[in-house]
């Protein structure tokens, strides 16, 4: 549904607390109900049986950020949903739209993806990461491996 120019965004952003391990189930159910969700996943390398593979887990444990149009959407009856974060009153706490936009931009940049930090000729960076580095929006040090950062003299915290 398109909104007219100057009309405020009908979505109000909230954070939901899930039962342990139910973040993905809650996100999927919200998406089936056409509720806009943000669930940042952290990707990392895992080694099992001498094989290296990519593993994922939610960055924010037991938390799903969602945008709800209160006029016609509802989260009632979602399995795995414990509660919605409340503010100082009994009403749900509203998250600033700019913070949600910033979180989505950070996900697109690959800031939570440790697998992007290791680029090889046969596995180049994704096009968005290469574009951001070319434009100067993302410093080249952001995609260095720990070995590259150590060789450049950076401390661990700067390379992480």
TrEMBL record:
Keywords on record: Transcription
SUPFAM superfamilies: N-utilization substance G protein NusG, N-terminal domain (SSF82679)
UniProt cross-references to InterPro entries, sorted A to Z: NGN-like_dom (IPR006645), NGN_dom_sf (IPR036735)
Protein's UniProt name: NusG-like N-terminal domain-containing protein
NusG-like N-terminal domain residues: 12-102
Domain of life: Bacteria
């Amino acid at each position: 549904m398109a909104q007219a120019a100057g009309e405020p965004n009908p979505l109000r952003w909230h954070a939901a607390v899930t039962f342990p391990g139910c973040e993905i189930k809650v996100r999927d159910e919200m998406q089936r109900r056409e509720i806009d969700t943000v669930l940042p996943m952290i990707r990392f390398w895992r080694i099992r049986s001498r094989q290296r593979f990519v593993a994922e887990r939610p960055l924010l444990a037991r938390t799903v950020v969602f945008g709800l149009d209160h006029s016609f959407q509802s989260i009632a009856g979602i399995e795995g949903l414990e509660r919605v974060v409340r503010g100082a009153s009994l009403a749900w706490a509203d998250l600033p739209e700019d913070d949600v936009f910033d979180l989505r931009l950070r996900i697109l940049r690959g800031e939570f993806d440790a697998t992007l930090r290791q680029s090889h000729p046969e596995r180049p960076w994704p096009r968005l990461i290469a574009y951001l580095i070319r434009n100067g929006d993302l410093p080249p040090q952001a995609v260095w491996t720990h070995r590259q950062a150590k060789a450049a003299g950076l401390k661990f915290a700067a390379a992480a």
